[in-house]
Design goal:
Shape: globular
Number of domains: 1
Low-confidence stretches: none
Strand order of the largest sheet: 2-1-3
Mean pLDDT: 87
Strand content: under 5%
Number of helices: 9
Distance between the termini: 68 Å
Order of helices and strands: HEEHEHHHHHHH
Helix content: 55-70%
Largest sheet: 3 strands, antiparallel
Structural class: mainly alpha
Number of strands: 3
Length: 279
C-alpha cells in the first residue's frame, strides 16, 4: 500500500529501537511504540552506524600510520598530515599560558573526524539504505547517528566529564568547588547564588554542544526527506526536487564539515577554560 507523505516522513524519522514494554522486550514496530518503551530503549541503528564509522575511521588512520613515508606522501597521507597540523595548531592557540595537554589534540582530531564521518552519511540518498534493510526484513533504519540526540548528547556528556576532570586536575577539588561557590561574588553569603549561576553555566556547555549538532543535522536530514516527497507528486515537481536535492547536497557538505569543526573547537575552548583559574 502506498504511503502518504506524512507516513513516509514518520517512517524515515523512526529509529530501529529495541526496548521493553509491558514485560515484553523486542523491536518497536512504530514510532509510537518506540516512544512508549521509554528512556531505557536502545536505538540499534544509531549505535551500529556510529560504531561502524569509528571502526572504518580507525582502519583508515591505521593504514595511513603503517604506510607513512618520509618521501613524497600520497594523497591520503598528505590529507591526514594537514589535518593533524591544523588541529595541533588550533589546540596550541587555545591553550594560552600553559603547555597544551598531549591528550587534547588527539581527542580533538578524533572528534573532528568521527563527527564528520557520521555527518557524511547524511549525503547518502535517503531511500537507498532503508530500502536495502527493508528487503532484509528490517523495517526501520536511520543512517545518520548525529540526527539522534542520544548520540550527540552522549558525546557532549563525555566532553563534560573531561572538563570536570581537567578542571580538578589543574585546580584541585578545593579550587574547583571554590570557583563554583565563590565566583563571581567572593563572599560566603553569596554561595547559593554563585552555585546556581556557575552550575547553570557549567551544565549549559554539554547541552548546547550536543543539541547544536543534533539540531543542525536533524534539520538537514528532514530537508532531504521533504525534497524526496516531491518525487511522488508529478513530473514537474519531481524534476524540481531533483535539482533541489543536488543543490542542498552541495550546500550540506559545508554544513557537515562546519558542524564537526564547531564541536571540536568548542571542546578545545571548554577544555582550555577548565584549566584557567579565576581570581
Amino acid at each position: 500500500m502506498a504511503q502518504t507523505s506524512g507516513e513516509y516522513i514518520k517512517h524515515h524519522l523512526t529509529n530501529l529501537t529495541w526496548g521493553c514494554q509491558g514485560g515484553h522486550c523486542g523491536l518497536a514496530d512504530s514510532m509510537q511504540q518506540a516512544h512508549a518503551m521509554g528512556f531505557w530503549s536502545i536505538h540499534l541503528d544509531s549505535l551500529c552506524w556510529s560504531i561502524g564509522a569509528a571502526l572504518l575511521l580507525a582502519w583508515v588512520l591505521r593504514r595511513v600510520a603503517t604506510g607513512m613515508t618520509s618521501g613524497v606522501p600520497g594523497g591520503l597521507q598528505n590529507l591526514v598530515e594537514i589535518l593533524v597540523d591544523f588541529v595541533d595548531g588550533a589546540v596550541r592557540e587555545s591553550f594560552q599560558g600553559r603547555k597544551a595537554s598531549a591528550m587534547v589534540a588527539p581527542m580533538a582530531l578524533t572528534l573532528l573526524l568521527w563527527i564528520f564521518a557520521m555527518n557524511f552519511l547524511d549525503l547518502v540518498p535517503v531511500d537507498i539504505l532503508p530500502l536495502i534493510f527493508q528487503a532484509a526484513g528490517v523495517e526501520h533504519m536511520r543512517v545518520v547517528p548525529t540526527t539522534d540526540p542520544n548520540i550527540t548528547l552522549g558525546m557532549a556528556t563525555f566532553v563534560f566529564l573531561l572538563i570536570i576532570g581537567y578542571s580538578i586536575r589543574f585546580k584541585g577539588v578545593g579550587g574547583f568547588v571554590g570557583e563554583l561557590t565563590l565566583h563571581p561574588f567572593n563572599h560566603p553569603v553569596f554561595i547559593p547564588f554563585n552555585l546556581l549561576l556557575e552550575g547553570v553555566s557549567l551544565i549549559a556547555k554539554p547541552i548546547s554542544l550536543g543539541m547544536r549538532l543534533f539540531g543542525n543535522m536533524y534539520a538537514g536530514e528532514l530537508i532531504f526527506i521533504l525534497i524526496c516527497t516531491m518525487y511522488s507528486t508529478n513530473i514537474f515537481l519531481g524534476s524540481f526536487g531533483a535539482v533541489l536535492q543536488l543543490m542542498w547536497a552541495v550546500f550540506h557538505i559545508l554544513i557537515i564539515t562546519l558542524q564537526a569543526f564547531i564541536f571540536m573547537m568548542l571542546t578545545i575552548v571548554y577544555m582550555s577554560a577548565a584549566q584557567e583559574s579565576h581570581h
